[in-house]
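S1.2 Input.
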Amino acid sequence: MVNFFKAYSNPNKYAEDLPSEKILADLKVDIEGVNRIRNKIDSGEMIKAIVVVKHPKKDYYAVLDGHHRFWAQKALGYTTIKCAVVEDFFGLGFHMTKNGIFQPDPRFTRYVRIPLKRFYSYITEFIKDPENSLKKIDSKLFQKDDF
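S1.3 Output.
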């Protein structure tokens, strides 16, 4: 097990294979997000390991980060999934995670998280190459799925 911050910063470094039937994940996921990840996996792209917390007494794990990645792998029939297991000294983290406390509503992901990620990538691109990035950004700024 690893501490929470190390697991989030580099989950692949601390990943281990866990049986998928021992992992509990919230169902509040955006199916389009799950399908995007399935397509990445199908095309051979590596995805980050998910971050889980172990039940304090039983052999079960709850997903802290990576609900969409978990469900994509589960849908593809994976029997083991790469996970970084974080420490949970009191068992509280497992129960909060199992009950969906840390998983945002899919609408929040669609209308806040995804546009913010897109905005961040545009700003990063602009800082690297202001002249050329403005041409690209204008054509991509508003996508029909945003509204």
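S1.4 Remarks. The chain has a mean pLDDT of 81.
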